[in-house]
């Protein structure tokens, strides 16, 4: 049953201390800025965050980290030219980091949404990121056991939702949105626009409403400048 | 066998990008890594019919966006705004990496800290204790693409060869590199040997003397 929240604050109100929260976005494209701001105001702490990056500048996830609300982050690319809040917490030993190859991150999230407990993949074999993990030779290649990543909540951004929660996205802002919505027990999505049932072309729906629990409309979403140096 | 010296000077990154572009087969699906490899796209024309993949969810990526074209929702893996090409498509992150990990990309071009004669690649972590590890999509690309090309300067800033007998830095992928394009020459990695295809601005014999790694003259 879809809830259409009145405000971002209401949308993230269920997020509690100790929760595992997935946050969509690749850099700033698809980043649910208003939902993250609402999470900052919500006060939930001791969070585990799953996100591709570890925050940029002095906003959003970077602020959440700066405030000491994130116990652990699971991501592929924490180090960026403007990830100073993460860098500082990490060097001070105040945040736990699990670095995951980006494809493993996406697939571990996808697997959780698809009810798959774990899978074997060649990615990472023979590298420090596979140390201590089970390896099997399958199809003539060494493959590493990787477990799925579930979350209690996901915060993502889409372009448009209808009143049953079907979603469409915009260009490369789609990134982690669909898989995170499926992998979270409670998925929360901010959208630019909510349209009536039947107003989305069913052939064009990217995330079917079954994966979506809460939608909130954000009229004029803020977006940072996407230009950064050497970041992946 | 004699190794051709194809240029009287070491190649600039732009000249090297053109050499790499010439070796990408027509019709290929290709991922260009962040940094120097991005330059390769400048030397791929419509007649090459190469489709560029970017891991944040797009096939048919165009060049860098300027002015009014800039759209914060349309960026490449380096988070630089880009444009669409006709026939492009968007997909989510797990699909994007599935096409990479599933062996559907013909080729990727990556930068490197070290490559060894077994085709092992080190390009994500210097191994220094104070470095914050960040891997991005490098391991998936190196392992998943049908062919992994490396594009780099042959020597590090302190003059050491980045082609080595065995990588000393943390690995990105095992036995994945098939060719190495550098300012001083092009190398084919096969069967535990580093075969020199051509050199730039230096003769083969001189290059052998400069490098602390066993080279084999090729073709």
TrEMBL record, chain B:
Report the InterPro entries cross-referenced here: 3-oxoacid_CoA-transf_B, CoA_trans_fam_I, NagB/RpiA_transferase-like
Q: Which SUPFAM superfamilies match?
A: NagB/RpiA/CoA transferase-like
The keyword Transferase is annotated on this UniProt entry? yes
Q: Name one Pfam family in it.
A: CoA_trans
Provide the alphabetized UniProt keywords. Transferase
In terms of domain of life, where is this protein from? Answer: Bacteria
Which family would the database say this protein is a member of? Belongs to the 3-oxoacid CoA-transferase subunit B family.
Annotated protein name in UniProt: 3-oxoacid CoA-transferase subunit B
């Amino acid at each position: 049953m879809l809830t259409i929240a009145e405000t971002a604050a209401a949308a993230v109100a269920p997020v509690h201390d100790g929760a595992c929260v997935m946050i969509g976005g690749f850099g700033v494209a698809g980043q649910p800025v208003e939902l993250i701001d609402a999470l900052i105001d919500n006060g939930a702490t001791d969070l585990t965050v799953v996100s591709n990056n570890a925050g940029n500048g002095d906003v959003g996830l970077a602020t959440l980290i700066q405030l000491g609300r994130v116990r652990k982050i699971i991501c592929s690319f924490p180090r960026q030219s403007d990830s100073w809040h993460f860098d500082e917490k990490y060097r001070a030993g105040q945040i736990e980091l699990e670095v995951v190859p980006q494809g493993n991150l996406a697939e571990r999230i996808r697997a959780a949404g698809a009810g798959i407990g774990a899978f074997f993949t060649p990615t990472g074999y023979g590298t420090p990121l596979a140390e201590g993990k089970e390896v099997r030779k399958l199809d003539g290649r060494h493959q590493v056991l990787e477990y799925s990543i579930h979350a209690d909540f996901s915060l993502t951004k889409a372009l448009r939702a209808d009143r049953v929660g079907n979603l469409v996205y915009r260009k490369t802002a789609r990134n982690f949105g669909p898989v995170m919505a499926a992998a979270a027990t409670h998925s929360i999505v901010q959208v630019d626009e909510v349209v009536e049932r039947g107003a989305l072309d069913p052939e064009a729906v990217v995330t079917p409403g079954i994966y979506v629990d809460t939608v909130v409309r954000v009229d004029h979403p803020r977006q940072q400048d996407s230009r950064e140096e050497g970041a992946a | 066998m004699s190794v051709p010296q194809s240029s009287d000077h070491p190649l600039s990154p732009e000249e090297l990008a053109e050499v790499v572009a010439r070796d990408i087969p027509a019709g290929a699906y290709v991922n260009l890594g962040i940094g120097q490899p991005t330059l390769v796209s400048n030397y791929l024309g419509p007649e090459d019919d190469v489709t560029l993949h970017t891991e944040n969810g797009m096939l048919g990526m165009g060049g860098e966006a300027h002015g009014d074209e800039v759209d914060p929702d349309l960026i490449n893996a380096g988070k630089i705004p880009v444009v669409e090409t006709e026939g492009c498509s968007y997909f989510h992150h797990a699909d994007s990496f599935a096409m990479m990990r599933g062996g559907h990309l013909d080729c990727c071009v990556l930068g490197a800290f070290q490559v060894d004669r077994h085709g092992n690649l080190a390009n994500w972590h210097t191994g220094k204790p104070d470095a914050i590890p960040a891997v991005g999509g490098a391991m998936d690309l190196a392992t998943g693409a049908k062919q992994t090309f490396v594009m780099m300067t042959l020597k590090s800033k302190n003059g050491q060869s980045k082609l080595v007998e065995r990588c000393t830095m943390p690995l990105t992928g095992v036995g994945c590199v098939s060719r190495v394009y550098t300012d001083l020459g092009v190398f084919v990695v096969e069967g535990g040997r580093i075969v020199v295809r051509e050199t730039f601005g230096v003769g083969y014999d001189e290059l052998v003397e400069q490098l602390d790694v066993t080279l084999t003259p090729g073709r």
